Amino acid sequence: MTISPFDLLILLGSLQGFILATLLWTNAKGRRLSNRLLAVLIGLLALMSLAVGVPIANGWVSLALDVLPFFMVMPVGPLIYFYVQSVSNPNFQLRKKERLQLLPVVLDWGAPLIVWTFYIGFFLGFWPREDGPSWGEVMNEYNTYADIPRWLSVTTYLFLTARFLDRQQRTDTNSITDEQRGTMRWLRQFIRAFLVFQCVWLLHLVLSLIPAFRNTLLDRVGWYPIYIPLAGLIYWLGFKGYLHSRPLASVSPTSKPTGPELPDETVAQVTSSLLNAMTNDRLFLDPELTVEKVGQNTGLTPKIISAVLNQHLRKNFNSFINEYRVEEIKQRLTTPAYEHLTLTGIAFECGFNSQATFQRAFKQQTGMSPGEFASRQKKTAQIRI
Q1: Percent of the chain with pLDDT over 70
Q2: Which of 121, 185, 219, 339 is deepest in the core (most CB within 10 A)?
């Protein structure tokens, strides 16, 4: 048995995909849901690549490829969308409405169901074996035209995901850390890679739908124009996704101080001015607050403010400001005067301009979500009563 170099390349991509999917699924670092969503996504791509690249050595392999749903494309779009949301929002969960978006996978089961229907009918005596080739033609036609809704589904979800990222970037402009900025770059690269693949798939799809080109196209190049790029995409997605599932130590606010040491008197003066601007002037309530605005209020230069925060308080500007916002939220959650407001409403009044940033900052500082904190406060109040 010989394997062509192209099939070998596809099979190696499939093997790499299964390995990376396993590593992501079992990875203890990063958010578990994000890792597993990406693992399932890569696993589905690897499964499709396996079905294309595996050599048909005997009838059993051919039968398995016909009766088992190796090609499950409809969940790919939702998985991309859910993965990006889970990375951007630590409180994202797969609820019922998200799971319902995976139901179109039944479209991918159509061809295997045709085969199952034929074999069951054959063993029950409903139709003869000689009808098998005509059933096979029906299955092939189904697969050809089923690629249209598959392509549309993935492309639609990619544009929805890109729009979601644009909205996140606009709302998080003034309250995003270096680590979050790096994550945003990764997610944009993630979407662009899939959009490029969609363009390749569209060209192949259009040619395969034209009867005059279909047989010639498949006879000469087969599915290689799609699955060879897919092999590279699988490796890139898994490798980059695994790296981004780990905390980025290089952007940690506790990294080694850089730049010249400041005199103790200067540090004390700047620190006092910053504390006064936060506790007395309550500048943190401004959702558009920048280091330049703080400098105008305190009479300090943005450079000296950043130097003191980074070198001596071991935090960046956004982390410093968000600490005051989170403390203000915690105080308001225990004050009856604010009971009529939602958590998001309180967060926006306290200076946050993005729900995702609010959720992320609150959990980083308190170790629990705002909802969990509010629930504990209510239970504590009931016990006291």
Answers
A1: 90
A2: 121
